[in-house]
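Render this sequence as a predicted structure.
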Amino acid sequence: MRKTISPRRLARIRRPLNALCFTLLASLSILAVAIAPALHAQTEDQERKIVYRVEPEYPPDLKRVGIGGYVRVDATVSPSGAVEAATVIGGNPALGEAAVKALKKWKYEPKSSRTKARLVFHFSP
């Protein structure tokens, strides 16, 4: 004889499992945040050397709530080394705003022509 589990009993079994899964995921995310550096930017190609660099200001509301992540930005650098334009191509828009604001203060070494740079900023609460 085969027993079937009622939907009500099945729901009682799933609740603790859902809570356990959530707890494990939360623990892993806290561990990942503890291991990851607080805030940094890296360039995917080192075509031009950075002469002056400003770190983005982490938005206090997002930091308090624990929202972080990666932001990808494309930048156009003038021949004089100033960042002319910066466009967020991926990531949280609020964090992207902070990254673009800081990036526009960066200064690269002068070169004979305009260049493009793709940067990745990491925000970790």
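Summary. Helices lie at 7-35, 60-65, 93-103. The mean pLDDT is 80.
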